[in-house]
Structure formats: C-alpha cells, structure tokens
Amino acid sequence: PQSTVLHPQPAAAAVKKPVAKICPEGVYCDSDTTLMWTIKDNGKDINWHEADQYCKNLTLAGLSDWELPTIDELAKLYDPKNSSTYKIRNPLRLTACCPWSSTKQDSGLMWYFGFNFGWPVETNVGTSLNHRALCVRRSGK
Fold first, then answer.
1. Coil vs helix vs strand at 54
2. 46-74: b (≥16 Cβ within 10 Å) or e
3. What is the rounded CA–CA span in Å between residue 121 and residue 114?
4. Whole-angstrom Cα distance, residue 134 to residue 136?
5. Cα distances (Å, whole numbers) of residue 71 to 26, 44, 78, 79
6. Which of 116, 120, 81 is nearest to 100 (CA)?
7. Which of 41, 50, 53, 70 could form a disulfide with 132 if both were Cys (CB 3.0 to 4.6 A apart)?
8. Are strands 98-106 and 131-132 parallel, antiparallel or unpaired?
C-alpha cells in the first residue's frame, strides 16, 4: 500500500495576507467588495435627484467619482446584529433610516434600503423625509 505524507500547515499568523490599501479618513474600504463608502450620510432629508447630485459632486479625502450605490450594494451593509436603531455595518453611520440607491423601479420610482427594518422599498423620487445619500466609490476609478 502507498503511504501518504501529511505536511504540517503553517500557523495562521505565518500565512501572508494581502496588505490592505490605506483607507482615507472619512471613508470605509470594504475588503470583500473593494467598494469605498462614505462613513457618514449627507446628514439631512434629501430627495433622489438631490442625493444623486450630492454623490456626483462630492469630493472626500481628495477623491471624486462618488455615486449612489445599487440596492444590492446597500443590502449587503445591513447588519441585524447591530444594536443601534439603524442596523448598518460598522463603522458606517446613518442619521436616518433610508439611503437612496441608483436602482430604478419604474418611471419616477427608485429603491431605497430601510436600515431600521432590513429590506428594500420603492418610492417616488420626490420623497425626502428620512431619506439620505450614502455614497459609494468603485475601485479603479
């Protein structure tokens, strides 16, 4: 019979991990998706058109090319274990429940994600109460 030789695996600490890119202050760098997020939202009620312009005009930590995230990108930030009112992944902070997405439902309807209850909702683009702009930047831009 043939024998198998098992080679010991290196200790976890000995395994070289990729060096993370330096993430600028005020920005959250998601290593799983390579997306960059503004840590804070815009801080006040905003309709979809205003939110879209807010992100497009934003310069943060010397970086431009910000935009509204897709509804799926927002959904991945939902953290049901977070004990705060808005259950979003740390270190992100929301001043109200519902950041807008770039995902269009229909003419005049866009999706937002409700971080107070954990699912996406469609609403009129002119709605502003409790809506925010949380901007994303895709790597390579």
1. helix
2. bbbebbbebbeebebeeeeebbbbebebb
3. 7
4. 7
5. 22, 20, 11, 15
6. 120
7. 41
8. parallel
How many angstroms separate the CA atoms of 7 and 5, rounded?
Answer: 6
Nearest to 128 by CA among 26, 54, 38, 64: 54
Tell me the C-alpha distance between 31 and 66, whole Å: 18
Angstrom distance (rounded) from CA 66 to CA 9: 42
Give the pTM.
0.82
B/e letters for 76-89, b = 16+ CB within 10 Å, e = fewer, are: ebbbeeeeeebbbe
Print pLDDT tens along the chain (141 aa). 555 555 555 555 544 444 456 899 999 999 889 999 999 999 999 999 999 999 999 999 999 999 999 999 999 999 999 999 999 999 999 999 999 999 998 788 999 999 999 999 999 999 999 999 999 999 655
| Triad 99, 134, 55: Cα angle to 5° | 120
